[in-house]
C-alpha cells in the first residue's frame, strides 16, 4: 500500500469523524446491560445492512456452547441473547481474512446521582465523550465500522473476507464471542479495539467468578451470642481468600510478563447480600467474587485451590466447621491469554501504527481479560487487542478521549487495508 493510498484513507477518517461521533452517541445512549442488549444488536444489524454486508443475526443456544473450552455458566435470563455478524466478501481474493469484533454489553451504571451527567445520555465536553460504555467499548466498535467506511470513502475496497462481529456477555462469561466460533466464523486474524490507551495487549489474565453461599443460625439480636451471624462468617471467608490472593501474587513473580507488575492478581468481593432484618442475626449471606489467574494456569486447578481455601477457613470457624458454606461458579471460567504466533498481523499493524503515531507500538500487560482468548486458545487465530484511551471504566463518569479515538480509528483503517489488501472500487 503506497503513501497516497494511506493518506486518502486517513483523510476519509477525518472527513467522517463527526458522523462517527454521532453514531457513537446513539450507540452509547442504549442502556445495554446484561440481558438488555437487544436494541444495541438491532442498531448494529441496521448499520451493517445499510452498508451492504451479509448479516447473520441469531439467538444463542447455551446447549450448543456448554461443552466448549472457556464456557462460563449462565445464571440470568438468556432467552433473548443474540449475536450479530456482518460479512464482507470481496470480488478479488488477494489479502488475508479478518475478524473485527466489539462487545455491546455494559456493566451497571450504579447510583445515578453519583454521575455528573446521566450515564445513558452521552455528553461531549473537553475533548471527551462521557457515558456508560463510551470507553468500554462502544466507541471502539463504531470506530471499527467507520474504519471500513473510510476505506470505501477513499475509493477502495478490501480484497479479503471480513467478519464484523457484535457480541454480548464479554463482561460476565464471554459466551457471545464463543457463539461466533461455534457458528463457524474463522479468519486469519482477529482484531478487538478494546480501550488499551494506544498499547497492544501482550498478555492478559483469566478470570474466575464464584459465589460463597454462607449459612448462619438466626436468633433475636438480644441473644446474639447464641446464634451465628452469616454475614460475619462470610467476612471470615473473605479474609482467608485475601491470603490466597497474596499467595497467587507471589506465584505470579515467576511469569515472564506479569513479573513486571507488583500486584497482577486481584481478588474482589463484588456483591454481598444477606439477612432480612436488622434486629435478627442473619441466617444467610451470599458473596459474589472475582479473582484473576495468569496465562498457563489451569482454571480447574485454581478452582480446587479456592475450594480448599474456603474449606480450611471453615474448619477454623465455630459455626462453619459443622455447617460448611457452598461455592458456586457464577460466570467467568476463563483462561489467561498470551499473544503468540502473531508476527504477520503484528507487522501489518506495526506499519499502520507507525504511520499514525510514529515509532513502534508498546506492549500492555493487562490485568483484565478480553475476548481475544477464545480465538487464540481455541482455534490458534492470532488476536490483537488495541484501542483508545479513556477512564473510569466500570466507574462513574466513564469517558473516551476523542483525539485518541480518532487515532485508533486511523490505525485500524490502515491495518485493515494492509492486512486484507485493497483495490480501487
UniProtKB/TrEMBL annotation:
Q: Which residues form the Peptidase M20 dimerisation domain?
A: 204-316
Q: Does the keyword Glycoprotein apply?
A: no
Q: Which GO terms describe its molecular function?
A: hydrolase activity; metal ion binding
| Any Pfam family matching the protein | Peptidase_M20
The source's superkingdom equals Bacteria
The cofactors required by this protein are: Co(2+); Zn(2+)
Q: Which UniProt keywords apply?
A: Cobalt, Hydrolase, Metal-binding, Zinc
Family from the record: Belongs to the peptidase M20A family.
Q: Mind telling me which PANTHER family this protein's record contains?
A: ACETYLORNITHINE DEACETYLASE, PEPTIDASE M20 DIMERISATION DOMAIN-CONTAINING PROTEIN
Q: What is the name attached to this protein's record?
A: ArgE/DapE family deacylase
Q: Which organism is it from?
A: Bradyrhizobium cytisi
Amino acid at each position: 500500500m503506497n503513501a497516497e493510498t494511506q493518506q486518502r484513507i486517513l483523510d476519509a477518517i477525518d472527513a467522517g469523524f463527526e458522523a462517527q461521533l454521532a453514531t457513537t452517541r446513539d450507540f452509547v445512549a442504549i442502556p445495554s446491560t446484561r440481558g438488555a442488549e437487544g436494541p444495541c444488536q438491532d442498531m448494529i444489524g441496521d448499520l451493517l445492512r445499510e452498508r451492504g454486508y451479509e448479516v447473520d443475526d441469531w439467538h444463542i443456544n447455551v446447549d450448543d456452547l456448554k461443552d466448549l473450552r472457556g464456557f462460563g455458566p449462565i445464571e440470568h435470563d438468556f432467552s433473548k441473547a443474540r449475536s450479530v455478524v456482518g460479512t464482507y466478501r470481496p470480488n478479488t481474493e488477494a489479502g488475508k481474512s479478518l475478524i473485527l469484533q466489539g462487545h455491546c454489553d455494559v456493566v451497571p451504571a450504579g447510583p445515578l446521582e453519583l454521575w455528573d451527567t446521566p450515564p445513558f445520555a452521552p455528553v461531549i465536553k473537553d475533548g471527551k465523550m462521557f457515558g456508560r460504555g463510551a470507553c468500554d467499548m462502544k466507541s471502539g466498535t463504531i470506530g471499527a465500522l467507520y474504519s471500513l467506511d473510510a476505506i470505501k470513502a477513499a475509493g477502495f475496497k478490501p480484497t479479503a473476507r471480513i467478519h464484523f462481529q457484535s457480541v454480548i456477555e464479554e463482561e460476565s462469561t464471554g459466551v457471545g464471542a464463543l457463539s461466533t466460533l461455534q457458528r463457524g466464523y474463522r479468519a486469519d486474524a482477529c482484531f478487538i479495539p478494546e480501550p488499551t490507551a494506544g498499547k497492544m495487549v501482550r498478555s492478559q489474565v483469566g478470570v474466575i467468578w464464584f459465589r460463597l453461599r454462607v449459612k448462619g443460625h438466626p436468633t433475636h439480636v438480644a441473644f446474639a451470642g447464641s446464634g451465628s451471624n452469616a454475614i460475619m462468617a462470610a467476612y471470615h471467608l473473605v479474609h482467608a481468600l485475601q491470603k490466597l490472593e497474596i499467595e497467587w501474587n507471589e506465584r505470579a513473580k515467576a511469569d515472564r510478563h506479569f513479573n513486571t507488575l507488583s500486584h497482577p492478581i486481584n481478588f474482589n468481593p463484588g456483591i454481598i447480600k444477606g439477612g432480612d432484618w436488622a434486629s435478627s442475626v442473619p441466617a444467610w449471606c451470599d458473596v459474589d467474587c472475582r479473582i484473576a489467574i495468569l496465562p498457563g494456569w489451569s482454571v480447574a486447578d485454581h478452582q480446587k485451590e479456592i475450594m480448599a481455601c474456603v474449606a480450611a477457613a471453615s474448619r477454623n470457624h465455630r459455626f462453619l466447621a459443622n455447617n460448611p458454606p457452598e461455592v458456586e461458579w457464577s460466570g467467568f471460567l476463563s483462561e489467561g491469554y498470551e499473544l503468540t504466533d502473531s508476527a504477520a498481523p503484528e507487522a501489518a499493524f506495526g506499519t499502520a501504527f507507525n504511520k499514525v503515531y510514529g515509532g513502534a507500538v508498546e506492549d500492555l500487560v493487562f490485568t483484565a481479560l478480553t475476548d481475544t482468548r477464545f480465538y487464540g486458545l481455541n482455534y490458534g487465530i492470532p488476536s490483537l487487542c488495541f484501542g483508545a484511551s479513556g477512564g473510569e471504566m466500570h466507574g462513574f463518569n466513564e469517558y473516551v478521549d476523542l483525539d485518541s479515538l480518532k487515532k485508533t480509528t486511523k490505525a485500524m483503517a490502515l491495518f485493515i487495508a494492509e492486512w486484507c489488501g485493497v483495490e480501487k472500487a
